[in-house]
From TrEMBL:
Its main location: secreted. It comes from Geotrypetes seraphini (Gaboon caecilian). Residues 83-219 form the C1q domain. This is Cerebellin-2. Keywords: Disulfide bond, Glycoprotein, Secreted, Signal. It is found in: Secreted. GO terms for cellular component: extracellular region; synapse. GO terms for biological process: maintenance of synapse structure. PROSITE patterns: C1Q. The keyword Glycoprotein applies. SMART domains: C1Q. The gene is CBLN2. The keyword Disulfide bond applies. It comes from the Eukaryota.
Amino acid sequence: MRVGRREAGATLRLSCWKLCKGCHLGLALALSMVLLLGLVLPPANAQNDTEPIVLEGKCLVVCDSNPSSDGAITSSLGISVRSGSAKVAFSATRSTNHEPSEMSNRTMTIYFDQVLVNIGNHFDLASSAFVAPRKGIYSFSFHVVKVYNRQTIQVSLMQNNYPVISAFAGDQDVTREAASNGVLLHMERADKVHLRLERGNLMGGWKYSTFSGFLVFPL
């Protein structure tokens, strides 16, 4: 009988321990749910969205976000997200021949009369110049075809009226000879880029002359 009582007591104590353990687990689960609800529901006395939410003396989240100069959104947590305004690209063509004279084009600028792409509207068709909306690395390319044989054409890409790169075609036996080039440029905000015809005459029919560029990434 004594052995039976001991076994029964041990069984009872084990059952109580399991029950208490279950109570602790339930209590922990309930506390977790309360904390979770506290995270989801901010306190009603928060003054504005730029202040951190504080519960029991601990900062949980910061809701401050400020637009950076390059069109991205940078949060207080250091997370940067590019906005749609950071997209910059253009492509223009010329549909007529370019045979400049001192009276008609003293700057020797190559003008384009049709824009195929102008995301951001930073390519001005009237001046045929691209104006950088922000500091960054930009990619530019151009392709031109000469009108006559036995002549040489030379085209320069100008950044703020200074030649950066050039291309030429000078085979005397080829009439429809092409010249092209491309470059990456480090540009500041409001820098300008355009094409200048140094020598020769360009063919424009069927859109042989093209000028394109886009923002690779802001700095």
